[in-house]
Design a protein that fits this description.
By secondary structure, the chain is α+β, with helices and mostly antiparallel strands. 55% of the residues lie in helices and 17% in strands.
């Protein structure tokens, strides 16, 4: 009976410890979600042309920042795109989404991803303060260009290309552009259109 009682007591302690760990993880996850939701509310209330501040240095910034480039992460991109589209509908303004991929070594038949930091620095030096630049989980770069129609987005891509050409040689930039409301009306559809445009750009050598 003593052994059985000790085992039961140990099981009770382990169960309590497991509950404590689960509660701690739940609180951390809730804090991250609250941070994203708060940022979404802020973006939706901003007027067109408002600069997007960098992620705050907090626990939630681990999921909102791409640490290899210093840009926002795809999680932030998704939030920003939804918010900017909501604001665009209210203010009757266009929004452009650009997916960018940069490779080196294409001329010698061995293309490989260009240095992410180099690409990120060129993007950051080119876009406006009100625009949003992110590093996607697949290594590409996503831009949300506020109050920008298709021709403005294409010119932004060209300026990024010229900036890259001025600091490095042997790079090839591919980009796909999609705009609200010209090409699509919601985030998923705009991303699908931009992805298809990027795929078409890769086929054009």
């Amino acid at each position: 009976m003593i052994v059985i009682g000790a085992v039961a007591a140990l099981a009770s302690v382990l169960a309590v410890a497991a509950v404590v760990v689960l509660v701690r993880r739940l609180r951390q996850a809730t804090a991250r979600l609250d941070a994203v939701a708060s940022r979404l509310d802020t973006l939706e209330d901003e007027e067109p042309g408002t600069a997007v501040p960098p992620p705050m240095a907090s626990a939630s910034s681990n999921t909102l920042t791409d640490h290899s480039t210093g840009l926002f992460s795809q999680e932030y991109f998704d939030v920003a795109l939804d918010a900017r589209l909501s604001a665009a509908r209210r203010h009757l303004r266009p929004v452009a989404v650009v997916l960018v991929e940069v490779v080196e070594g294409l001329a010698d038949g061995s293309p490989r991803t260009a240095a992410p930091r180099t690409v990120a620095d060129s993007i950051s030096a080119t876009i406006r303060d009100a625009d949003t630049a992110c590093r996607m989980t697949d290594g590409r770069f996503g831009l949300v260009l506020e109050d920008t129609p298709e021709n403005g987005a294409i010119w932004t891509v060209e300026r990024i290309r010229r900036h890259l050409a001025g600091i490095s040689t042997g790079l090839t930039l591919w980009a796909g552009v999609a705009c609200y409301p010209a090409h699509a009306f919601d985030a998923d559809e705009i991303l699908t259109q931009a992805d298809a445009a990027l795929a078409a750009a890769r086929e054009w050598r």
